[in-house]
Design goal:
317 residues, alpha/beta, TIM Barrel, binds 6-chloro-9H-purine, binds zinc ion
Length: 317
Amino acid sequence: MNNLIQNLSKAELHIHIEGSLEPEMMFKLAKRNKIALPYKNIEEIKSAYQFNNLQSFLDLYYQGMAVLQSEDDFYDLMYAYLNKAASQNITQAEIFFDPQGHTSRNIKWDTFMHGFKRAIDEAKANLGINASLIMCFLRHLPESDALKTFDNAMNYRDLFIGVGLDSSEVGHPPSLFKRVFQKARDAGLYLVAHAGEEGDASYVWEAIDELGVHRIDHGNNAINDLSLIRRIAADDLALTMCPLSNQRLQSVPDLAKHQLRKFMEYGVKVTINSDDPAYFGGYLNENYLALTTALKLTPDEIRLIANNSLEACFIQY
Ligand code: ES4
Ligand code: ZN
């Protein structure tokens, strides 16, 4: 199984680049930028990563970002991820970034956008991996903030392919972001949203009906609504599922009960992804392997899921 998973060509469609910040790099960048960390060493960082829900993770995720300061920091972060991805036979990745997590710390748009672009261009040349960016809005902030972010992002229109919606889900439903998603649609961008990770099925309905998303990130709790499952299957909306994330954040009681199998039985285009690999204990192949073991996926099922990921890409190479 290990070899099959390693050797298959795969796409990764749900990875937050800031969630690929390994403790080792956090330490290196903190030193480079003379930023004090609330940890004495790498072991202390790792032992702090004990989450029991989405918010307890997000608090550390936003704190970790503080070490990202210069264009080289963003370059190093992106290049390290793409190098790891290429080593796992990921042929293309559509990668989330959180501009508001950086502009709120007075980092300039040029700093992160140019760092990401340089890493993506060099990884394409050196490693052969194709990567695109999807800009996410932080849903715990008001839509007015997302609208300002969108206007600033339009100065970099050719550097990203779509917009998404992430951060604290419950209490921040997709419908609150209708206007900014309409603007993104008018600009010809692809649309995705995190929905049904901790929120119930109504969040997934809203992502589809009010935002008009082209893929759904997570989608787990759509499993409780049969007419919703049928709608997702009929519209061929891919789900970008993240098993180790769900396990670590306790969005599933047990990986053996992961919703992916049932979605697959209903003909939904399911994919496996890593979400925030530096925080959740594994990159893409580790996610495939964990779910293969827990759900007893067959080689044909693994091939189907990998093929789904290639079909669900917005950019076809
Ligand atoms: C995230 Cl796992 C998850 N859910 C929602 N927003 C996020 N941002 C980074 N990781
Ligand atoms: Zn995510």
